[in-house]
Amino acid sequence: MNLNVTIAHEHKLFRSGIKSLINNMTGRKLSSGKEYSRYNIINDVSTPGELVSTLTNNDIDILLLGYSLHTDENKNSPLASMDGYNLVKWLRNKYPKLKIVVMSPHRHASLVRMMLAAGISGYISMDICDRTLERVMSTVLNNEVYVENDLMRSLLNSHNNTNEITPKELEVLRLLCKGLSLTKIAARMNLSIKTVSAHKLRAMDKLDVDNDCQLYFLLSRSSLFDIRL
Fold first, then answer.
1. Which residue ranges form the domains of the chain, and what is each CATH number?
2. Other Cβ atoms closer than 10 A to 204
3. Is 123 helix (H, G, I), strand (E, B) or coil?
4. What's CA 91's distance to the chain center, in Å?
């Protein structure tokens, strides 16, 4: 029994590295008693459009999904400009049986919690070793959720922190870092411009910054998001 895997990430070199790790994996028995001989990689993609095409035309068991993909604001399809949280929500609704493992350099507790609430099966950093990746994949195939130990500790430690940035505030910051205006963010998140502005201001207050320059400087120094200039 082979299990089909698709890799979606904006960087080709990273996709190649993950493919190499998976190709060296051996099969093992699942909790259901079924055995699989190997993982079969069905395409590696860099855009939401390529991803949806692959999922539509193939029976995929596991999706290893980068949090950010190459997007195109000029395409007519809403999927062309969709990545991150909104893409995960769309995929969960469209492909409910798909096991989604998010691969991200972002380790903020709010982001991890937001992804788990959206229905992902796993959340991992981008510097994991081959043994960890194999453990992740076997875990999610057994219908369990995998989160790395240090990320889980971060979730537990921040659970009662009232100053923690909320998932929506975090998503507004992420889209700002991608260069989107408040108007475009409002359209993408299906919120009013006033609400988006309020999320931004509350996040700035929690981060103790007074203006956009200080905000972008802090986010670039923290490496929470990629600042695309």
1. 2-157 (3.40.50.2300), 167-222 (1.10.10.10)
2. 18
3. strand
4. 11
pLDDT digits (tens, 9 = 90+) for 100-113: 999 987 777 777 88
Distance CA 88, CA 199 (A): 21
The structure tokens 């205006």 sit at: 181
pLDDT tens column, 184-197: 999 988 899 999 99
Per the listing, tokens 């203006």 go with: 211
pLDDT (0 to 100) of residue 148 = 83
Tokens 């259901």 correspond to 32
Continuous segment of H or E residues that includes residue 64: strand 62-66
CB 140 within 8 A of CB 99: yes
Give the count of alpha carbons within 13 A of 205, CB side only. 10
Largest Cα–Cα separation, the chain: 57
